[in-house]
Amino acid sequence: MKHFYLSLLLLFSGRFFAQYCTNVGPTSTVDSNVESVVLNGVVGAINYTGCPGIIGLQDLTQNVNVTLNAGASYTISVKFGTCGGNYAGAGEAWIDFDQNGNFDAYESLGTWAGTPPAPVQVWSFTVPPNAVNGVTRLRVMQREAGTLPLNPCGTYQWGSVTDFGITLANGLNCTGYPGDDQNDAIVVGTLPYTDTRSTEICYSNQNFVYPSADIYYYFEPNPLLASVRVSLCESSFDTFLSVVDMNGQVIAYNDDATQCAPSSELIFDPTNLGPLYIIVEGWGSLTGDYTLHMDATYVGLDELTQAPFQLYPNPSSGKLQVKPDTGKYQLTDLHGKLLLSFDSAVSAGQNLEHIAPGTFLLLQTETGKIQKWQKL
Description:
Layout: H1 5-12, E1 25-26, E2 32-40, E3 45-49, E4 57-69, E5 73-82, E6 89-95, E7 108-114, E8 121-126, E9 134-144, E10 155-156, E11 159-169, E12 186-187, E13 193-198, E14 214-219, E15 225-231, E16 239-245, E17 250-254, E18 265-268, E19 276-282, E20 289-298, E21 310-312, E22 319-323, E23 328-332, E24 338-343, E25 350-351, E26 358-364, E27 369-375
């Protein structure tokens, strides 16, 4: 399926790295409000008292923390009440067990609907055995005039929403799953490149296009690339693929490729682009297995611009010199694979006898100019 509305989001979103929705909750401090939350963990406890009311999200994740074990059962007590008048509404609580940055329906601990004063709600829940180890969030929400199920990212006039820090233990260890965000992106090496993974476990939602889990790749185009193809055509689920620069500006994106819909594939021009992130995610909240393929086309040798430097002897049996003897140079093969970097000021008369005979390219890094060099 085609998701045309998404193009508007991508074109105008700018930097869109994100995780938990925090622009949530009430615009007024009066009336409906959670009065208390009690949760005892294997380590630590939450004993929260509400009122007076808080506008927006009350974020207690830094100073309230309790540890829960995966596979174990616990009881949470919540009193949905008021800081003023008594009005009908609804309440709900969630823990983000999979740490994907969302409070999903299966992560709901319990619901309430009624009019304060109301009895304390006591809900028993079991932490999933495959919950992800680490720090996550408990969100408790009350919404006056709300209906179930509540939207954990909703905004409204009266009520409250409070987040608490939760540490999950004895579950999945995700330390061996790189690529969860731009700070831990998987580095793409020499093209062609192939990588197979799954977004189903250990990956969270960092890219704010869809609420699905996503995986980041880091890629630095070299100046010999004419075009780069990125393909997810062997995916097991409906994917979405995007390429962004270091500022979060969208370079290219694809939802459903013509040849392999609902999987994604795109081709982009890397000319004059710096380092990039390639982001793999699912449409909506979908997750699954995928194989990422990347390959490229390269500029023809007759397209290389005349470089403002001298390269001699050319051809050569192993000695290589350049003039001017300032600046930095990179020697690559015809596919752009880096063989050697050197500063001409300290490496004049570079000995390249260890390199097999063939045709190579020398790049002057400051100008981007390139010349051919033949090794005999």
